[in-house]
Amino acid sequence: MMTASPANRVQVALGDRSYDILIQPGILNQLGQVLQGVGCSGRVGVVTNPVVNKLYGIEVCRALTQAGFSPFLIIVPDGEQAKTVQWLAKILDALVIQRVERQDMIVALGGGVTGDVAGFAASVYLRGIPFVQVPTTLVAQVDSSVGGKTGVNHPSGKNLIGAFYQPRMVVIDPRVLHTLSPRQWIAGLAEVIKYGMIADKRFFAFLEEHVEGLRTRAEDVIPHVIRRCCEIKAEVVGGDEREVGRRRILNYGHTVGHALESWGHYKKWVHGEAVGLGMVQEASMAQYLGICSKDVVECQDDLIKRVGLPIMMPKMKFLDLWQAMQHDKKVVKGDIHCVLPRRIGDVCVVPLVRESIRKWFLVQQQAATKAAKVFRKPASRPRLARKK
Q1: What is the pTM of this model?
Q2: Which residues are identified as catalytic?
Q3: Domain topology for 6-176
Q4: Which of 112, 148, 198, 274 could form a disulfide bond with 166, CB atoms 3.0-4.6 angstroms apart?
């Protein structure tokens, strides 16, 4: 059986629901042995999408079969279009058709969307069957695969339907990140930067010093990045599993980010891009409200730009943004609660006052319009000297 050294293992401590995150290059082709080691057996529904299935479906099914499992594939669409009640129902239909029993399990092989919808299916089928997260995107490896948040979107807002349901294990193979498109890779770096902003200024400084390694997926940088993000999330989740207290800091960038995704009908940005834009806007809010200094905003925004993430908000009406934020799952008694930075590595959760945010929004829009005019203004041509 394959084992991971302590350096490659992070524990999420949740009592009898505790589990390990294994981080090891090449672990994917030994997945069956790993699952045997935690007492899994029987049928395995491998939920994945066409892109990931083409890259890794055969490898994963072979690894499971060689260890005595009986795998079968459940293919869902790539991207947010799979994160619906309709596709949840199709996964459940497949489990019923395959006569999956309570001792059997689901493997979520893919990015955050696949993990969310597959985990939710596992939580409700037969009132709960085991599932394992095998994340294949940077966003999923550093964030969404850890912590037990599962669910689907509603047309009015993101992640409004779901459950807290912890996986039996998270198995991370950094090797698979080399097949990500440049856009998906860079989008994932928003979640990485988020962890430095919310909890670890030394990690943030490490990111600043290794921008080139982040952009090029350097093998001496990425494993450390994945592990540190998982350590921070495991520590936060271990102290607040159901997001009633400190776990809310993990939503930095997501109040505005989720609103933008919903406003753009989940087509304009991929998740990480929206989170990056959300971080830029939420830091700007914090400065406007006197919660953080201009230096904090500039430091964060500079790193976001350097890794290649977009920072410009689209042209939209304040009412559209405000209404989209009101459908966020973090709304309490009608009040929008948002994570705002105080310093690098330190954030707070505050309720947003509509009139204050409306004024901030107008200032932002005016500044953006002014910047766009300066950018479009043609450079003046030097005058040629007249011939005498």
Answers
A1: 0.90
A2: 127, 149, 191, 233, 243, 247, 251, 254, 258, 271
A3: Rossmann fold (3.40.50)
A4: 148
